[in-house]
Specification:
By secondary structure, the protein is mainly alpha-helical. It is about 55% helix and about 10% strand.
């Protein structure tokens, strides 16, 4: 398993953040009420990573977030912990040599690249 890489992970997060801002703008102005996109980001990350191992942004960046122990999906409780720490942003920047942020280490996860088709 090859780690996702910082720039690829950042691109996936920015895609997810943009989607959350667009969706949240239908019911609240993010310039006036800043918390709805953050809550939506936590919900989206919890649901998609917990059940499928990747968010829409990760899908486009060709990455998956899997359990470090068995390579499977994290499940909703661990994905929620990871999402809350990710929303704080700073834990995601504190990475170890395997490019696992504090949010990944706390949830027992790792973000890996998906190999191109045919490999």
């Amino acid at each position: 398993m090859e780690p996702g890489g910082f720039l690829r992970r950042l691109a996936a997060l920015l895609i997810d953040w943009a989607l959350c801002n667009v969706i949240a703008s239908f019911y609240a102005d993010p310039r006036v009420v800043p918390w709805p996109p953050v809550v939506l980001l936590i919900i989206v990350n919890t649901f998609f990573i917990g059940l499928f191992g990747q968010t829409p942004g990760m899908f486009l960046a060709r990455m998956r977030c899997v359990s470090i122990f068995d390579g499977g999906a994290l499940g909703l409780p661990k994905a929620l912990l990871r999402a809350v720490l990710l929303a704080l942003f700073i834990p995601a920047l504190i990475m170890n040599d395997k490019q696992r942020g504090v949010h990944d280490r706390a949830a027992g996860s790792i973000v890996v690249r998906i190999p191109p088709a045919g490999r």
